[in-house]
Amino acid sequence: MESEQLYHRGYCRNSYNSIASASSDEELLDGAGAVMDFHTTEDDNLLDGDAASPGSNYVMSNGGGAPSSTTHLLDFLEEPIPGVGTYDDFHTIDWVREKCKDRERHRKINSKKKESAWEFTKSLYDAWSGWLVVTLTGLASGALAGLIDIAADWLNDLKEGVCLSAMWFNHEQCCWTSNETTFAERDKCPQWKSWAELILGQAEGPGSYIMNYFMYIYWALSFAFLAVCLVKVFAPYACGSGIPEIKTILSGFIIRGYLGKWTLLIKTITLVLAVASGLSLGKEGPLVHVACCCGNIFSYLFPKYSKNEAKKREVLSAASAAGVSVAFGAPIGGVLFSLEEVSYYFPLKTLWRSFFAALVAAFVLRSINPFGNSRLVLFYVEYHTPWYLFELIPFILLGVFGGLWGAFFIRANIAWCRRRKSTRFGKYPVLEVIFVAAITAVVAFPNPYTRQNTSELIKELFTDCGPLESSQLCQYRSQMNGSKAFTDNPNRPAGPGVYAAMWQLCLALIFKIIMTIFTFGLKVMPHRCADAPFAPHVFSPTPTPLPCFCRPQVPSGLFIPSMAIGAIAGRIVGIAVEQLAYYHHDWFLFREWCEVGADCITPGLYAMVGAAACLGGVTRMTVSLVVIVFELTGGLEYIVPLMAAVMTSKWVGDAFGREGIYEAHIRLNGYPFLDAKEEFTHVTLAREVMRPRRSDPPLAVLTQDDLTVEELQSTINETSYNGFPVIVSKESQRLVGFALRRDINIAIENARRKQEGIMLNSRVYFTQHAPTLPADSPRPLKLRSILDMSPFTVTDHTPMEIVVDIFRKMGLRQCLVTHNGNVLGIITKKNILEHLEELKQHKEPLIDDI
């Protein structure tokens, strides 16, 4: 029997028939390629669970749909059964099966390309389809990002006033052609009117301030209300940043509609509204979701990707790189972000295509030039002053602050998300968004640093002071006459404007910290519930239940708010160090580098380092973050300070917990994601984790040749498992293969539809040859074609460290546990994740006791 099993393993690998995908164009699956699955609806159900889920099979070739001329049976070599090999919603793909399917498709194309010119053309189209789909994705991502940037700037300025000469101009564009602007008040021109000037006819005074205050709050609430209503009615999946879900999808999980056309449309519109409302959120994270929607939609134009979920995830990895490329103007950083942060399966060809997609997206955005500065981002800056060795001390301190902020934010945000389920606002998402938007607008308006757009704030904090800067942060005193707003020497005593700006920045820092915690929580509920709302697919006849963990709210990104917090803290530290260097230039730290009147400290550089440190503390990104910030500034000289701050923030953050914010939200939502960065150091065996346990009901199995259709259907109906091991007989528990619940149901229905004589007492067999039956027996049903004859197996004494490593590297959803060839139980991804969680919770009290 063991030699027969080995034969079947090789046989299955070489004889995998392509499986037709049943995914509809509307239900645009989100996919991306990695492995790892665990969800309440899926893997657990193989032996403990709820839904159907394909196994980690090598083959699973599909049975034929038409009866054979000799046996009239569903035969292994006939046409595939429609629907076999596809996946249900909230299930994980079978990476091994998808790869086998792609290899079979590739061999078929290569074998036919020499037959005719048409077949050769089809082979060329297949070879170039990958480059075509990433090109289209890059073009669409760049165009949408430019549109979002332009619209968000216009709506943001609409809260303060309107351009009379052209209503579609924002404040800056309105004053470009004006000849009546002054150097000190370059943002004021007759063409731009505040709401107080339009309504009351006066620009100054308490009445005009109150009117502007009121209109600011009115527009903020209007934008927030419209955004949350659009999300709730049309596309509930447009809420949040999308990066935790993208990571889960790229690991192989399926959330139908999450990357669909309606999600793309509504997320694009509501992202503009949410940013313009003034909420403490950014558009950079959601741009990754937008780009992945584009990649998913374009992949349906190419059968190579539309019918293979693993290949589709390669496109989504490239799309995520394009999203970061247009979000930060950092094509290389986008590729590294996709590799380091979101992708689980990243072959070399995906690296090349990700690079190309990021290049195309950046080129399109640069051609649109949404900011009017010939740059890809609003806060592009260049510094002309080198950094000095002693500055590593404040840079590292900023890294410590970033790590502490990241650890605090993750814990506070997750605690708030869990708390929301017991609050009244958590049950009324529209009311909650309006309430948070109202608090934000009321508190933000009096402070100019919280009133302005967050990207503009970062730009002002990054910018170095010079003779052309009119910011309050640059109002230094001149040693020549004691009062001068601008000087060519950056190292000079701070004037009243700088001190006032410092106080305002401190208040802005507190405000941003508090509001970011609550605003980023406007998306998740920590549990799934029975009364989940229904999100009907527009072209689907049946509604799909929407888990409670994603109640309709608004798109919300975390990159820009985190960078703003770090930039504020960095600018404050930079000004403090600058003043120390000025008043105490004889200290040993400053004596060698900072002479009196010398250009020594650049506060804007500290803001940039602080922004990178805080973002690194929240996300735990390292290499990609340094490259992104480097591309923002264009200064190769400042990589060492950035590296020092980012690594320090990661070390400090990891001391309080290794999870970044996205991993924490994945865990909070219960997504089936097995993190490759997490180490497994406990000594346990497979038999301790497998199901069933001693107190559980016995393992549900199928025999290979003595079941009837009625008995098979009874077994399926009485259990909720996603799959069943197939054994030789009840007496011999030797493993034959593994059959999936979904595939069995589809095969039976297909046989009844296309074959005559299939009855409830028809014999079902999974063997190559039909068993000997009496002459008056009804026609048997052969299901060998849907049997995975080489399921992954481990022995009951296999260490769980090895099992976890196999699940990570092979992308398994389940593996069978055997003893001397006899089936004992099964381990699913959910079992592994539950086991890891139990070990964590058992370990944490031990740490607290120390």
Automatic annotation (TrEMBL):
The keyword Nucleotide-binding applies. InterPro entries: CBS_dom, CBS_dom_sf, Cl-channel_core, ClC, ClC3. SMART domains: CBS. Its main location: membrane. GO terms for molecular function: ATP binding; chloride:proton antiporter activity; voltage-gated chloride channel activity. The chain crosses the membrane at residues 216-238, 258-279, 286-303, 315-339, 388-410, 430-449, 501-522. It is found in: Cell membrane; Early endosome membrane; Late endosome membrane; Lysosome membrane. Residues 690-756, 787-844 form the CBS domain. Strongly outwardly rectifying, electrogenic H(+)/Cl(-)exchanger which mediates the exchange of chloride ions against protons. The CLC channel family contains both chloride channels and proton-coupled anion transporters that exchange chloride or another anion for protons. The presence of conserved gating glutamate residues is typical for family members that function as antiporters. This is Chloride channel protein. It comes from Cyclopterus lumpus.
